[in-house]
From TrEMBL:
Pfam families: PH. InterPro entries: PH-like_dom_sf, PH_domain. It comes from the Eukaryota. This is PH domain-containing protein. The keyword Coiled coil applies. Residues 116-231 form the PH domain. Residues 79-113 form a coiled coil. Keywords: Coiled coil.
Length: 245
């Protein structure tokens, strides 16, 4: 049968059953008197049908979609491809190799970060600018939920902000020498009642990074590492962990 380019082409002679066997099955009588009875012929016929369907299913499973299969003179199947199909396969293989190289580079980058960074991890970040002298105070937008997850890396003399830990280049960065304040912020609850612990990083340019996490241990680790590397002193905190304003 040949239902189209996506189906297998089956040679009917390969699945031929003797006419006498079929007639005996239809009449309900055996075609021979030796051990072959109608019951045994029926069981053999059903067994042959199951094996044939299983073989066809397996062939369809291992057939490449879009590749036309044709029977060869040696009784084996062969594939005939046009020049356009060959070029398409080559292009797909090139894309796969390029993707594999990119994933390998990302994996090596993550491994290097984890090995050499002083501290790294995901934090929720939002940025604010402090008012310059003579400018009106900024609008109070503390209720705006614009926290975005970022992968933060403290490495060497710089603080890096990645969109994802697998990114090869950071989305933003700042020198530790430009950081003038690192202090704790009051904890707060989100709409889903999740408690967030927060702190801020202020640069000499007026850029303020507000960072938060659901883990107080993680926030304390960042505060300790930044105070140490930036050589800053922490302000006195209240007993509940909120800073005095």
């Amino acid at each position: 049968m040949d239902d189209g380019p996506w189906e297998l082409k089956v040679i009917p002679d390969h699945f031929w059953i003797p006419t006498s066997v079929l007639e005996s099955l239809e009449n309900g009588t055996p075609s021979i008197t030796k051990p072959g009875t109608a019951k045994s012929l029926r069981s053999q016929y059903h067994l042959w049908t199951q094996r044939t369907l299983r073989a066809v299913s397996m062939l369809k499973l291992f057939t490449f979609r879009g590749l036309p299969w044709f029977p060869s003179t040696g009784g084996q199947e062969k594939v005939e491809l046009t020049a356009a199909e060959v070029e398409s396969l080559r292009s797909e293989l090139a894309d796969i190799e390029e993707r594999a190289a990119q994933l390998r580079a990302q994996l090596e980058n993550v491994d290097e970060i984890l090995r050499s960074a002083c501290l790294s991890g995901y934090l929720y970040i939002r940025t604010r600018w402090t008012a310059l002298p003579g400018e009106p105070p900024p609008i109070d937008d503390s209720d705006v939920d614009d926290w975005l997850p970022r992968f933060v890396v403290l490495h060497g003399e710089c603080l890096y902000f990645y969109l994802l830990c697998t990114d090869l280049s950071p989305q933003d960065s700042t020198l530790l020498s430009d950081i003038v304040e690192v202090e704790q912020l009051p904890s707060f609850k989100r709409e889903d009642d999740e408690m967030r612990y927060a702190f801020y990083i202020l640069t000499r340019h007026g850029l303020r990074y507000e960072c938060s996490s659901s883990s107080k241990i993680q926030v304390d680790s960042w505060l300790s590492a930044l105070h140490s590397d930036c050589k800053l002193e922490s302000d006195k905190s209240t007993p509940n962990g909120s800073i005095e304003l």
